[in-house]
Amino acid sequence: MRLTQAELVRAIRAAAGDSELADLDGDIADRDFVELGYDSVALLEVAAVLRRTHGIALPPDTVAEATTPAALLRVVNAGEVR
User: Fold this and answer.
1) What's the whole-model pTM score?
2) CA dist 10 → 4, 48, 64, 72 (Å)
3) d(CA 12, CA 80)
4) Residues 6+ apart with CB under 8 A from 39
5) How many whole angstroms separate alpha carbon 29 and alpha carbon 19?
6) Is 5 buried (19+), middle (13-18) or exposed (0-12) by CB count in 10 A?
7) Are 38 and 12 in contact (CB under 8 A)?
8) Quick one: pLDDT at residue 71?
């Protein structure tokens, strides 16, 4: 199974809610998570949601290194984690 951007957005909303800074329905793939209004704590919550809903285990350093949704999707879909 490949994680889609829509599934990632659902995980972000489930974990951290909608940021007032950015519209998650737009083209967010290459926008920094910080620019979108999500800090490292929020992204760790996203990782927890992905683990529960999709069985994807993301080490904390991997989450910190993936600064955009596209980068996070590349790591997850490359099979480097699970």
Assistant:
1) 0.85
2) 10, 13, 19, 14
3) 20
4) 33
5) 15
6) middle
7) yes
8) 96
pLDDT in tens, 28-76: 999 999 999 899 899 999 999 999 999 999 998 988 899 999 999 999 9
**Segment 14-36 mean pLDDT:** 85
Cβ atoms 69, 27 nearer than 8 A: no
Give the C-alpha separation, 14 to 61, whole Å: 21
| Structural contact between residues 72 and 40, judged by C-beta atoms closer than 8 angstroms | no
Residue showing tokens 């909303």: 13
Rounded distance between C-alpha atoms, residue 56 and residue 46, angstroms: 11
Question: The dihedral of CA 71, 42, 53, 80: what is its sign?
Answer: positive
**Helix (H) or strand (E) run with residue 79 in it:** none
